[in-house]
Amino acid sequence: MKRIVQKFLGRKVPTRRPEPPALPPQIEEIRQGALKGQHLQIVQWGQVLLDSVYVPRDPVAALDWFTIAANAGFGPGHNMRGRCFQFGWGCEKDLQLAARCYEAAAAAGDEWGRYNLGILTMRGIGMETDLARALDLFRTAVNNGHAKSMNLYARFLEEGWVVPQDRGAALDWYRKSAEGGDYRGQHNHATALVDAGKIDEALGWWRQAVVDATSDILLAMDQKLTALGPKGDADLLERVRERLKEMGISPSGAAVSVSNSPKG
């Protein structure tokens, strides 16, 4: 008996593949909806595959899911296909194809697709620059309540790009963009408030913007907050600089501004 036990203990136990960790309920609900063919959940599941801590990143599979939604005529599916082709997520970059995807999204009533097409058109990415067409795209999105487009519509009015310059109307649209949750609109609205001497109100908008702001806006915020000195918010300035460090960017109080050029 002892020899039998020793022989058994000496055998290699076959290794079992570990079970994949269970997804959080809200993510599993999205996955199940996608498997059932629900268009919104199909796009959301593709976004999970693009950038989620819960599953391995799989941009090729994400593009496949977005294509399923796009083939069903779902605007956000077209828009996310456009993002994939614009940035090379799961495919080779193809700016012309990205533009066609955004056009299809806009035609299906997706305001993010309309906005993204406006960006390509304004900056001449994958096509010739056409400010008049870009303005029309942003204005349509604005009329449909798209906050990020409101910020760019305001910029057209402020700078007088293909429209009569109207800085008063521009400030009003920056405010609406800020109220709609766009961090660029929040920064631009805060800047206007500082110019009007409403520093406390401006700081409130910058405290909202710092959460999602990209590096160019953070650098501009760093400049503005530094210039305010003791009238500003030292904790907010530190948060701005922490976010820049997280991005691998050296914070600086030197003059750095957000480009006013249509191609910037």
UniProtKB/TrEMBL annotation:
SMART domains: SEL1. Pfam families: Sel1. Gene3D superfamilies: Tetratricopeptide repeat domain. This is Sel1 repeat family protein. It comes from Gluconobacter oxydans (strain 621H) (Gluconobacter suboxydans).
